[in-house]
Design goal:
globular, Nuclear Transport Factor 2, Chain: A, about 140 residues, alpha+beta, 5 strands, five-stranded mixed beta sheet
């Protein structure tokens, strides 16, 4: 069992790393082919093609998008699992005021060909507000 828990935690870590690096391919690789991202609006994106379009729309104009996560794997039953992740997010769009947020992801996770993927991510905004200070985006040397 511990190996499954570790692998699912690594899935959540890869998701956050892909977001922070704005790497769409790495982000899509965390999703099941028919994965659904329910972010609280009608007609959530379903499948890699729809998720890719959602990604493009979401990151357009973002100067900074950083996320830090912590959470728990609730249970693993064979090739399915339930997990919950809390994210602290920082966003800067163009010259707009920087924002900070706290979000919650409730996840259904599936194992496909030995790899854990998100089948369903339900996203809840718990807090959003203005942030004082300046961002210094990561720029690899």
């Amino acid at each position: 069992m511990p190996d499954e828990y570790t692998a699912i935690r690594q899935l959540a870590e890869r998701y956050v790393d892909a977001v922070n690096r704005r790497n769409q391919d790495a982000w899509l690789a965390t999703w099941a082919p028919d994965g659904v991202f329910d972010y609280g609006h009608d007609d959530p994106p379903r499948s890699h093609n729809a998720l890719a379009r959602f990604w493009d729309m979401s990151v357009e104009g973002m100067e900074v998008l950083m996320s830090v996560t912590s959470g728990v794997v609730e249970r693993v039953e064979g090739d399915t699992a339930k997990a919950r992740w809390y994210h602290t997010e920082y966003v800067q769009r163009g010259d707009d005021t920087p924002l900070a947020g706290l979000t919650l992801y409730e996840d259904d996770v599936v194992r496909i060909d030995g790899e854990w993927r998100f089948a369903l991510r339900e996203h809840y905004v718990l807090f959003s507000g203005e942030l004082e200070g300046s961002f210094y985006p990561y720029d690899p040397r």
